[in-house]
Amino acid sequence: MYRYDEFDAKIVADRVAQFRGQVARRVEGDITEDEFKPLRLMNGVYLQLHAYMLRIAIPYGTLNAAQLRKLAFIARTYDKNFGHITTRQNIQFNWPALTDIPDILDHLAEVEMHAIQTSGNCIRNVTSDQFAGAGADELEDPRPWCEIIRQWSTFHPEFSFLPRKFKIAVTAAPEDRAAVRVHDIGLHMKKNEAGEVGFEVLVGGGLGRTPYIGQVIREFLPKDHLLSYLEAILRVYNSLGRRDNIYKARIKILVNELGAEAFRDMVEAEWAVMDKSRIDLPGDEIERIHAYFAAPDFEDDLDTGDFDSAQKSDKGFARWVRHNVRAHKQPGYASVTISLKPTSMAPGDITSEQMELIADIAQTHCFDEVRTTHEQNLVLPHVKKADLHAIYKKLAPYGLGSSNAGLVSDIIACPGLDYCNLANTRSIPLAQRIQKRFEDLDRQENIGELKIKISGCINACGHHHVGHIGILGVDKKGEEFYQVTLGGSAAEDASIGEIVGRGLSTDEVVDAIENLISFYLGERSDGERFVDTYRRLGPDPFKEALYVA
Amino acid sequence: MLLKLENETLARVNAEAAQDIPDFGVWQAQEPRGTAVRIANDINLAAEEFDPSGLELIVLDFPKYKDGRAYTQARTLRECYGFEGDIRAAGDVLRDQVLFMARCGFTSFELADGVLERSGGVEGFEKSLKDFDLFYQPGVKGTALWRLRGLSGATEKERLAAAGIKG
Amino acid sequence: MADKPVKISTGGVKKGRNEGEKAVTANRLSDGITVYLYDDGSWQDALRGAAVFEGDDALAALEQATAQETIVVGPYLMDVVQDGDTVVPAGRALLRETIRSAGPTIKSNYSRTEAL
């Protein structure tokens, strides 16, 4: 993973000192809340219902053991002993005091972490494939490019007061695990006819009030020109993006008002006159950054140890292997998804003790590497198959052995009205009730891959638009209601779910989800996932099934 | 209240207020054209066949400090039009944005009443201008870090010196 | 004056009509904790003893609170009812204000000991 040199370290230290001064000026009354708010947001500090919330960047979801231990320390010292993994692969703490945050940022800087641009109308944490560098299907590791974008976007003087927030995702595998089609800019690494690897550039995807799938504005961008092309896109957006209405300020609205072709023409015109050599990195700097992401020292001809026999003797392990263990590009290794979705916990929550356990495992078994996922889980990217049973036995007593990755209980949920100042309804209790209803693991396994995503308001932080089953909370005269959408996907087959039927009351909604799933089980043909059956049959029969008593 | 940036320091100067400077339409109609113009955020210079030669001052507007269009305008004026005169930030100009402004090519800052007093005076603005001395990306002002990293064989002290930091 | 729309809790915090009994609530600047204005002008973290206002008195209290930018952030009026000696949330934003005063509904050790 990337490591700071003395320059990176100085920039982060200067940032903490700057924010410490800004907090002091706010407390003294020298700056108003209105002036302070964007400053704190660009340092990851929100004010929620009960307290401040601090969102810490985990660039493209890559962490080491020392960082995880530091997060555990912060949770224990300054918070309530837990953190929450977000859909942008970040971690947030729900209870820090504003006056402690500069100290927390100092602690983070010690392990090369920060909270820079995790909120605000600027370029946010770049996200990527959680299996980057491990998956057999990827063209190359996308993370060096994520780091290049991270550095370029950090304190960008021209693009720190954009019309609205701006999210970029990069992936390099045909199976899109980074949801690049629902980002402001999605970069999908592909080969051109000459066999060179470059970027397919998608613009204008996004969720929120008005969901859009991103449109391709360039089939192939040579890698070396990534930054100048991004700069051209951002410049057009900063000049022309709407500033009169916060709900129409995202780039997706601009792209759709202008049309993708007209937008592309403006970007290309801007790019054509730009002095690219000033902005694009030279080859040696690109190489310098790539060197940090060299593959670990994998061993050849590994013995798989008790991997096969343990699956026969330990049924729980066998199930975990079926759902949470994934093939690795290196023979003898595998990637593990550590589910943060046990029944009755808030999806994505992780305690200090759990963080420390995973840090130990990462150090012992996984080249000191852990990943966060946009589905609010963790990943051990490179572990020996021979170690899997031992790892499972360490995880399970800590509530980290759930064998549900990709299944009905692996739910994405926003924090909802339990924490969030914007939410209309709660999300987490509903996720927990659905998990409880489908607690039986055989039943979950029989249902197969099913992505349920829950948002507590129209801002869609729980990605409901792209859930196979999406659930949107709406407030009706002070009562919580839930609107169901079906057929969405955030993957390479990206689609926006369709709303089916009226809003359901808190009492009705779990039964309705069960009705939908029962209908699917009755109708599916071999190998069909829920979303496949939905796409084959269309919304009408599902709509009817929703209300079956 | 106007602050002018020269040789890395800010100084109070007296000058005509932004509101008294002709806006783009008035300036275009002038015969001969004056040496100062005020350009609104929504004017697309590329579409206007804009020629800045003869101009000494261009005033760009921050209707709210959160409205960042003038950053792109300033950078375009410097990098695409080669404008070398004074670019003044007017409107909601605050201490915490002044470094971004300077990096995009602004050279003077017109402050609303009371702003300087509650910003620690000129020193406060100067302090914010120096919050960072290393930058990941190029700007009108400020060398991109990768250029410093590219000084192969340089010691840390030499590289810091190249960045203008006293080791 | 009482009919003028005012910052009020209606699910989110929006402009609403100033009708009925109100408490003034905000978040404390230093730590963000939910607080309520008391009769003695102090800010406390338990709703139960909050000062209750109506009409122009509520507006005047909100105006005073808004001026206290170095103590609290984002003050607004919330609907309340007095239940014996205790003040409890009421109205359109009942759920939101109940959660604000009592803590998240999902895990008991995250709740606030002061309330409930």
Automatic annotation (TrEMBL), chain A:
- Does the record bear Ribosomal protein in its keywords? no
Write down a Pfam family by its short name.
NIR_SIR_ferr
Q: Which residues form the Nitrite/sulphite reductase 4Fe-4S domain?
A: 119-272, 409-546
- Organism domain of life: Bacteria
Q: Where is the Nitrite/Sulfite reductase ferredoxin-like domain?
A: 52-111, 333-397
What molecular function terms (GO) are annotated for this protein? 4 iron, 4 sulfur cluster binding; heme binding; metal ion binding; oxidoreductase activity
Keyword terms: 4Fe-4S, Heme, Iron, Iron-sulfur, Metal-binding, Oxidoreductase
Q: Known Gene3D superfamilies for this protein?
A: 3.90.480.20, Sulfite Reductase Hemoprotein, domain 1
Matching PANTHER family, A to Z? Answer: BLR3264 PROTEIN, FERREDOXIN--NITRITE REDUCTASE, CHLOROPLASTIC
Q: What is this protein called?
A: Sulfite reductase
Q: Which organism is it from?
A: Aquisalinus luteolus
- Gene name of the record: cysI
Automatic annotation (TrEMBL), chain B:
Q: Name one Pfam family in it.
A: DUF934
Q: What is this protein called?
A: DUF934 domain-containing protein
UniProtKB/TrEMBL annotation, chain C:
Residue ranges of region Disordered? 1-21
User: Which named protein is this?
Assistant: DUF2849 domain-containing protein
Please name the source species: Aquisalinus luteolus
